[in-house]
Amino acid sequence: MKRTSLTIYSAAHFWVDFSCALLMFRCISSASDFALCLLLYNFFAFAMQMPLGILADRFNHNALTAALGCILTAAAYPLCGVPVLTVCMAGLGNALFHLGGGIDTLNHSQKKGTALGIFVSPGALGLFLGTKLGKSSAPLLWIGPVGLSVFAILLLCFCSASRHGFTAASSPFRSVLLRLKRPGENATFHLKPTISPLWLIPLFLVVVLRSYMGMNQSFSWKQGVWSWLLVLALVPGKAAGGCLMDKIRPVPAAIGSLGLAALLYFGAGIPVCGTLAVFLFNMTMPITLWAAARLLPGAKGFAFGLLTFGLFLGYVPSAAGLPSLLHSSLSYVMLSLVSMALLVPPLYALQSDRKRTHHTRF
What is the pTM of this model? Predict the structure, then answer.
């Protein structure tokens, strides 16, 4: 059942991001206030995951949350005549899907990162293909809401057929921050982190830098087939990060991927080197999410949303029209090394804590 769940969530992740990009660039890009609409969409899709993550953790109906996200995104299509309302609804649907799917994947994956890497990886391809189709004149707008409806039905059928029903199989909300309690519920909290949640700060900064890098890095050769290969490098890169972490542990995986990325960024003007650098740089995405969930084991939705808020902050400078601070291959190298310096300490703390306790609840 776990493989089936991961397959549905990963395919739905592709389709949700594909549908949102298709909607934005087919129906909204011609609006006079497109810049505002794009900002609002990203705010609802990424920044709102943090407060919504608290609610998702609390109510513990993750597949239902993901299905609701698909439905809201599909419902945004008929509202194209009101661009601001359209993008807010699509962004909200995107956020709810990612939270539901992300928390469920974290619950099923337990202490591993492979499933998380597989879940997050299809999104970049969905955004790329949705943008391409949205900018074309192909009369295929209808496939967005139809596909979203199909995935909503699949998610509802799957969770209703499972023995847990609509309630998540494990790790209900036991917030280390808010201590919310249902009436009659025992106040003992079993899902507490054994190391300081303050380690979330460097993880958060890593995500901000990764987002900023994604928005501002530029390659002169990024055209034709290389533009496709560059995007395709993101997909296996994120998936490979989770697999590598499980094989050689988080700290060596982070040092190896970011260290090699820094070396390859020296040759970023060469298509092969630049593409491989992007592949390696993005391998740390599932590792960062895994670490945040380990630091807040009873509030995975909040942890997930906190890092997506970092994605939004990394996007804001470009949305505000500020000039990029990345002007050369050396700046990419430095950003990779700074990311490694921020990421390794919390990973080492988690790794050391696991060795010390020999047992960590997740």
Answer: 0.88
